[in-house]
Every structure is written in C-alpha cells, then in structure tokens.
Amino acid sequence: MANTWLETVSKVESMIPLLGKLGREQSVKVQLAGQTLMSDSVTGLVALFDQHPDIDLARVYQVLEQLIANQTANTAVELEDVFASEDLDALVSSTPADSATPVVLYGFGRIGRLLARRMCTLGHTTPGMHLAAIVVRKAGDNDLAKRASLLKFDSVHGTYEGVVKVDAENEQLIINGQVVKVIYASDPSEVDYAAQGISNALLVDNTGRWRDHDGLSVHLSRPGIERVVLTAPGKQMKNIVYGVNDSDINFEDKVLSAASCTTNAITPILSVLEEKYGIESGHVETVHAYTNDQNLIDNVHKGDRRGRAAAMNMVMTETGAAKAVSKAIPSLEGKLSGSAIRVPVINVSIAVLSLNLKAGTSVEEINAVLKKASTSVALAGQIGFSEEADAVSSDFIGSEQAGILDSLSTKVRGNQATLYVWYDNEYGYSCQVVRLMEKLAQMALANSDTVESAAA
C-alpha cells in the first residue's frame, strides 16, 4: 500500500480505466488471491488492496498495461501468479476476444436471475462466455416487462445497478447493452437454439425439474446446445464444488451438477480440515433460510412439515449436503450425517459442523489454518473468514464466497471441533456456479484452439 490514503486512492483511480478496457474490450478478468478487481468502484479496490498491504500498486498498474499492450483476451489473470513467475507471456493463455461461449439460462427464478446479475454486472467480467438467452414459460401478456422488473428490483439483494431495457418487438432484454433473447417454451423439446443463432452453447438448468443424466440430456439433443450444468445436486453425473474437485472435469463431460448451496458452503472448509487433521466422523446441521418451495401459510405439501407457514415456524427437514460432500471429497464417504432446520429468514443460512478429527487441535490453530486458506489463491473465492463480534445473518447478504467461517464461534475440545459457517445460499452459490461456468468456457476455448491448430 502507498504511504498515505490519498496516494493509494490516486493509484487505484488510475487503474479503473485499464480494468474497464480489459473487461469491456478484451474480456479479461484480473484477480488478487481469487478476488476480482472490479472496474466500477474505487472504494472496492482500495478495500481489496488493504487486505494485501505487501502488494506493489505500481507493479499492478504495469501488469494491467502489459495485458492491454499484449492484447490478451478471454482469460482470467491471477496477480499473485504473475508476480511469482515474472513471465506474463508464458503464464497467460489468450484467445480471440470474439470467441466466447454463449450461455443459455433455462429457468429464471432466484438463481437464474442472480446468475444473470453476476454475468452482466458492470465492472465484472466472465471471460470466455456471454449471456445469450433465457428460456421461461410465458406467464402473461406482460411477461417480458415482469421478467425485467424482477431482474432489476430484488427484495433481498436490492436494486440492480445496471441498465435493463425491454425490446418487446424482438422478445429480448438488453442488459447493460448486451442483447439477451427470451425464449418461451414449456419443455426443452420445443426449443431450436440454432434457429436463434446460438451454437455450441452452455445451458444452465435452474428449474430443478430434471436431476438425473438422462433427464438433462434432453437439452443436449436440441440444436445449439453443447453442455449442461444443473444448479442442484445431480444423479449419474459429477457433482462439482468449484475450488475443490473442479479438476475432475473432462472435456467429454457433457452434463454436470454444481451441487447445492450447502454443499458448496461446507466442502471447501472440510477439504482443508481433512488435509490438515483428517476427519473421523461428523454431523452437519444447517439452519437454513426458507425457500420458494415452502408454503407461506399452512397448506398441503408433498413434504409434510414444509407445508406449514414458512415465515412463522422453524421447520425440521432433511438435507443431502452431508452425504454429497463425499462426491467432492471421496475420503469422507460415509463419515458425515446431516439434517436441516428451515427458519423464518428470507436469505443467508448457517451450517454447524460438529467434527471428530483424527488429531487434536485448538481454537487458535484451527482458526489460523482456515484464515490462511481464506487468503490463498486456491480457496479465497470459496472460504471467507469473519472476526466481527457483532456479526449476524444479514451481514452476509451478497457475500461472494461459498461459505464464511464465524471464527469467534469456533469451539474445540481435544479432537472435537465445532465450526459455524455462514453462507448466502442465493448469491454466494450463484458466484460458485459462475466460476464453474467460466472454467467450462475456458475449456471450450482451449479445445477450439487445439482443434484449429491440428487442422492447420
């Protein structure tokens, strides 16, 4: 950091146009310890650099200039890796800025709209992909205007700070100048994406209607769709928690699951503890915000207790998150149990991890281990670390990490540890899904380069 606050602000202000150009024209996302340098906020950048006081801001500026001069495109650049190697050209792969994977959002509910917000956020870049279309069932004559309004205004996450316009004549939304086609269909078999000018697309199914490989493969049979991601736990497919087992993805994998919000929240932390101490057994209790599948007032429901009024009751239910962890961390197979309580808050949940470790530890040590992981390049986007004495659930609305350790609540007795992990079960999870999508888009670009080189 610079010696004075004003010097720091001045240096950060000088980076804004460079970051804007890299994102807008070259589709380059620049990160520091897994956190994105956003081009829309001087305050946000200052706060990020304040977490890393050893970073030379002059050197950061030089790297940004070099990326522009080299016409680097469609990639993510991790500053810590660049500083370590000192060879930017060897470290960064680049593809033409206009070769990006189109993304189709099948379903536009809570997660679908947040994925759209994340992908189209001013100052944020999703290298290698762009939002091309949204598929929904038509809800009425004013459906398009209503979809735009729900994207723009959100009771939980606030007003979207972008420009959302409706092009009713062409049935499309224009989000920050980006044209997004709205396709009306009640079943995947009705859609011909190629006829809409979409090819080799990544489709993200947010409906939860199909959760097995065969059901989701219907999307693959439609012209224009290359790959499918499910935003729910899936059967007969790889369940991916980005940052933990995304290295398991092969280019041949056509259908993948992004697992659940709870699985994403706890798995990165469990992976650190499994590597450091080893986990003998444990129980995961999630205190979860109520969701759209519950009743607002008592009524019939296929899940008995979920039929009771969501905003008035704590509702006992089940979660498959504990068992699903083993799909990302095979060594934990059969070692974790889990259950859940739905509570009367609209967003942000907390997972209580009660673990029997293979080695003894202390509150100080286990917190130190997880704090270090939270600042690492590998897991900074997945693990957050809170030391706030007054922290409550609403403080974590909008958190980009998959899960945030409440370090002041950590309990340890010998080899028994209890940890409390906050997570924005909507936005934090959506950020994880976008990270997975970015990886798939980068894989598609790399494969395209390989095919072109072989043909040449």
UniProtKB/TrEMBL annotation:
Q: Give start and end of each Glyceraldehyde 3-phosphate dehydrogenase NAD(P) binding domain.
A: 101-261
Kindly give the PROSITE patterns that the UniProt entry links to this protein. GAPDH
Which Pfam family, just one, is annotated for this protein?
Gp_dh_N
Q: What is its EC number?
A: 1.2.1.-
Gene3D superfamilies reported for this sequence: Dihydrodipicolinate Reductase, domain 2, NAD(P)-binding Rossmann-like Domain
Provide the taxonomic classification: Bacteria, Pseudomonadati, Pseudomonadota, Gammaproteobacteria, Oceanospirillales
Protein name (database record): Glyceraldehyde-3-phosphate dehydrogenase
Q: InterPro entries this protein is in? A: GlycerAld/Erythrose_P_DH, GlycerAld_3-P_DH_AS, GlycerAld_3-P_DH_cat, GlycerAld_3-P_DH_NAD(P)-bd, Glyceraldehyde-3-P_DH_1, NAD(P)-bd_dom_sf
Keyword Oxidoreductase carried by entry: yes
Q: Name one GO molecular function term.
A: NADP binding
Q: Which family does it belong to?
A: Belongs to the glyceraldehyde-3-phosphate dehydrogenase family.
UniProt-listed SUPFAM superfamilies: Glyceraldehyde-3-phosphate dehydrogenase-like, C-terminal domain, NAD(P)-binding Rossmann-fold domains
Q: Which GO terms describe its biological process?
A: glucose metabolic process
Keyword annotations for this protein? Oxidoreductase
Question: Can you tell which superkingdom this protein's organism belongs to?
Answer: Bacteria
